[in-house]
Design goal:
RT_dom, DNA/RNA_pol_sf, alpha+beta, GrpII_Intron_Splice-Mob/Def, RNA-directed DNA polymerase, 9 helices, about 210 residues, RNA-directed DNA polymerase activity
């Protein structure tokens, strides 16, 4: 997978308007096994409570079954488990979604593919949620601009409830500017529609509507 991703990165960099038509096949057995191994141990579990260690006890069989479902288009992520953690300097709590381990594997595989394409499109001054970049790197650049450049003002902006309100339809249309593989787009779309479990209810939320089952 790594060799193929390097080639995709070269193509993405050479042509910012190129659309990639065949990507889902990269989520093969070898790649997904590697994704499983790369995931951290002893993390919070999803609604079924399956740990990395438990999934790994029958890893080959589990991954083969996962690949089969991906190829047959029958794979569907399960709703994430909603939990809350305290917000810094606030009485409010921040919601978190904990996926099932198998869904984490697929997410990691998709992340590698998306990073390979979009890392070539992002501005160098962008740091949020990007690989090999962290808050300390951002602070170093900010410090450089403040000390070495002519800075008149600094704007601090926070989008309230961004992940609960982002428009999924718009997001999918944005992805289609670079990705025209219907199989990969279908998997991503199913993740967006997976929703979360809270107090025994499956809640599916988009900017347009909120559905409770």
């Amino acid at each position: 997978m790594e060799t193929k991703l390097l080639r995709i990165a070269e193509l993405a960099k050479s042509d910012p308007k190129m659309k990639f038509t065949s990507l889902a096949h990269l989520l093969n057995k070898e790649a997904l096994v590697q994704c499983h191994l790369e995931l951290p141990n002893k993390k919070a579990t999803g609604i079924s409570g399956t740990t990395k260690e438990q999934y790994g006890e029958s890893l080959e069989e589990n991954i083969e079954d996962l690949v089969s479902r991906l190829k047959s288009k029958s794979y569907r992520p399960v709703p994430v488990r909603r939990m809350y953690i305290p917000k810094l300097n606030s009485n409010k709590k921040r919601p978190l979604g904990i996926p099932e381990h198998e869904d984490k594997i697929v997410q990691r595989g998709i992340t590698k593919i998306l990073n390979t394409i979009y890392e070539n499109d992002f501005l160098d001054c962008s740091f949020g949620f990007r690989p090999n970049r962290n808050c300390h790197d951002a602070l170093k650049i900010l410090n450089f601009y403040i000390e070495k450049r002519s800075v008149n003002y600094v704007v601090d902006v926070d989008i309230r409830g961004f992940f609960d309100n982002v428009d999924h339809i718009w997001m999918m249309e944005f992805l289609k500017l670079r990705i025209s593989d219907p199989n990969l787009l279908r998997i991503i779309g199913r993740f967006l529609k997976g929703g979360y479990m809270e107090e025994g209810r499956n809640i599916i939320q988009t900017k347009a509507h909120r559905k409770v089952e």
